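User: two proteins, same treatment. go.

Assistant:
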Amino acid sequence: MPVIPRLKRGRTTLPAITAWRAPPYGCLGTPLVAEPTVELATERLIEHALHTSRVGIVALPLLGDEGPVVAAVRGRPATRHAPFERPVWRRGSRADLEGTLSPHHRGEIRRLARRLEEELGAPLRVRDEAERAGSVEDFMTVEASGWKGQRGTAPNANEAHARFFREMCAAFRASGGLQLLELGTGSRVASSKCNLLAGDCVFHFKIAFDEALRPFRPGLQLEVRMIELFQQRMDQTWMDSCAPAGNKAFEQLWPERQPIASYVLAASRTVSWLINHRPTVPSARSRDARATGRPD
């Protein structure tokens, strides 16, 4: 588990141990612990971290709030912060979108899809371009041309972020875990989506779209087709939206929820009292969380 030796408390920085989650890209902070001794290994990890911390504080942001890892965390004195429920899609939870969208909403999406095809002059297609040379650069260009570029949150706006994104995509591509979907025609891309495949999960990492086509909701059009692709042609069992709290688009589109919460653990009751009276973990609505992306 990568860590940083500090925890911010407003304007104060404590010499604590905090799990590093690389904002704005770290949407899940659950430590990677191998089976079959997940709870025991997690308990030993926490014990070592508390012993290492100069002030006896360990912060674990954005944990999946169910399962053996968080069970081990709850087995110790811990303060739970900023809980929320993240939209996810589990295989078998719905046969299709009939159970999540109203007839009016489904009809509106189809209408906009027809108008988008008319605008582009050809039928829409979804292609996985992960293996194509230049596909990562194309994605970054599309993302930088939109609202993320204007706000300076696209990787192209920061050399270190751009390098991280390129290296990350290359590593996932090499392991067969990169999915770069493009919705459009043979001559123009309306929207693009970067997914990361890990184990039985599809993590929705980033989405970008052509700003000139915003009236037709190209990002939402791709999200709808992503669900169909997942159900019909993929083997993974669930999808994580990686969305921050309050993302209305995913909350409306995806039927299931994954509880997420941040935890602060203390080595003594005195430190625990201080934590309980002055929460230190940033809310999931923070600026870096909102920068991860939104369908439109």
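Protein 2:
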Amino acid sequence: MKSTLLNLISLCLLSLSTLAQTRPSDSLRLTSPDGQLQFTFELQPGGVPTYEITHRGNAVVLPSRLGLLKNPAGLSGANDWNRDFRVVGTQKRSQNVTWKPVYGERSTVKDHYNELTITLLPTAPNRPALQLLVRAYDAGVAFRYQFPEDLRAQILDIGQEDTHLKFPPGTDAGST
């Protein structure tokens, strides 16, 4: 009897640990191939998409908003793309290839990254999905917005980007 009860408890604990490893929030973190950089995506209250980037556990970009804004002089009924989202899908992949450029300083270029595509669906009906495609390289993180094909999104009137970069206090920056 004790053996059966012990086996049942062990099975329950194993099931719980498996569930904990497959939580959706785990799939919203992406690390560089060398593990030094980490990109974290999170939806804040109101479905506001945010991200942060760390290097060796130290903040590089503090939690910052993501999004796109409609063209104020554009189509009537257009909506902003910076809030009221829910995550409906994620997909991860990795690539490690070398390619030869037509010209340049190097005869070969290494293209090694981990990629995460996050599909966001607005909570309002009849609005198409927005995807955030993130790539983490050993040297940095890049992301872009894309709209999957959808008949509801044949015409999108984007006015400006609403992506923020919040740096830790004391950060030195330069621009060209």
